[in-house]
Amino acid sequence: MSALYLALAVFLLLNLAAGLWRVRHGPTAADRMLAAQLFGTTSAAILLLLAEALGLPALRDVALVLALLAVIAVIAFTASVKTATPDRDRRDD
């Protein structure tokens, strides 16, 4: 069963390579942020698979911290984009 977990971890690493391409060539900042979110969630999944395959329960804690950091990064990005764009609903007539 651990061979299956390791094979899935390798597959997820290949997905991260595709996400790295999107970060490099993404046309917008939102595309790059979504790729960064992919890094956070996929890395957490890889760590969870490795925790089961290798029998290291401490990796579960690291995966949890990584998932929380990914959420915080998205919140920070959303807040910065919201303050950087002008409010289109408000009109100064």
Can you characterise this structure?
This protein is an all-alpha fold and 93 residues long. It contains 3 helices and no strands. Helix 1 runs antiparallel to helix 2 and helix 2 packs antiparallel against helix 3. It starts with a helix and ends in a 9-residue tail after the last helix.
| Structure class | mainly alpha
Largest sheet: none
* Overall pLDDT score: 85
**Low-confidence region ranges:** none
N to C succession of SSEs: HHH
End-to-end Cα distance, whole Å, is 68 Å
Q: Write down how many β-strands occur, each being a DSSP E stretch of 2 or more residues.
A: 0
Q: What sort of overall outline do the alpha carbons produce when their principal axes are compared?
A: elongated
Number of discrete helical segments: 3
User: What share of residues are in beta strands?
Assistant: under 5%
Gyration radius, rounded: 18 Å
Helix content: over 70%
